[in-house]
Amino acid sequence: MLQRGVTQQRLSLCSLASDAISRICRVQNVLFLEQDDFSTLLGVRGERMLGRPGDEGACAPATPVGNSAFSAAVPGPASTPGPAQTDLKQQRDAAQYLVIRFLDIAIALVALAFLAPLLLLVSLSVFVADPGPVLFRHRRIGKHGVPFFCLKFRSMAIDAEERLRDLLLRDPEARAEWERDHKLRNDPRIVGIGRFLRKSSLDELPQLLNVLAGEMSLVGPRPIVVAEIERYGRYFENYCAMRPGITGLWQICGRNDVSYRRRVALDVRLHSTFSLKTYFKILIMTPISLLFSNDAY
């Protein structure tokens, strides 16, 4: 009798342990970046922008697990969807794509018409400050990995590439910063009113033409260059699944104060939770973020 009671207790403990392990495994699938909570990653401003974690479309990071790999912070479905559910999801995705494409074109056309005087003024200022081409075409990676030329107002000297190469050869700190962030806080290539254009993001207004051409969207991941592909690793396919955007989660959730690793996580999160609601939230919060941001360079 006593032995039977001990056996039952052991079986009960094994069952409890098994249940605990299962719960831990499920929790591990939705851990955030380096176990940072939502407030640590985005700050109070991020919560106010897109809601608290758990809200639909919240600006929460995707999950990296391990030292260098990321894991998407989206729990898998409880069961495999049937053909009918798959078809319905595809139809919804197609309808959402058409609506967002229509909004991209309509908003871009209105913005170009409304901002035409500002675009002309910026063009003249760029040329007067540093005579040369007004626009800068830079090769970036687009949807499905197809390259395109991303347009910007020129904020750098014409010999920018030579200046960067010389700086990285003679300045170890600048080289380390470039390798870490692919940006420089004190960039010697910037001339004229370039610093103001970059801080205010006015240099990105010509990308409205990329939106009309279908190469970009108003909302999406930040367009990257070929050298940045390896930084995304296996999550590069998440980047390629969307059109790059003029704005996105990275721009309203800390911008240059966000590490590159977290920026990748935000792009993964944007892809996994993208919806019309998220689209409008990001569009609305972008000008607010620009007004109160001091981290752009």
Give a verbal description of the structure:
The protein is mainly alpha-helical. 55% of the residues lie in helices and 7% in strands. The chain is built from 13 helices and four strands. It has a two-stranded antiparallel ribbon with strand order 1-2. A two-stranded parallel ribbon has the order 3-4. A hairpin with a 5-residue loop joins strand 1 (135-141) and strand 2. Helix 5 packs across helix 6. It is globular and about 60 Å long. The model is unreliable at 20-78 (pLDDT under 50).
Short description:
The protein is mainly alpha-helical and 297 residues long. The protein has helices at 2-28, 38-50, 83-114, 116-129, 160-170, 172-181, 194-200, 207-212, 229-232, 236-240, 249-252, 260-273, 276-292; strands at residues 135-141, 147-153, 217-219, 245-247. Helix content is 55%, strand content 7%.
Low-pLDDT windows of residues: 20-78
Global morphology: globular
**What amount of the residues lies in strands?**
5-15%
Q: SS-based structural class?
A: mainly alpha
Largest sheet: 2 strands, antiparallel
Strand order of the largest sheet: 1-2
The number of strands is 4
Q: Determine the N-to-C terminus distance.
A: 76 Å
Overall average residue pLDDT: 76
| Proportion in helices | 55-70%
User: How do the SSEs run, as a string of H and E?
Assistant: HHHHEEHHHHEHHEHHH
Helical stretch tally: 13
Rg for CA atoms? 23 Å
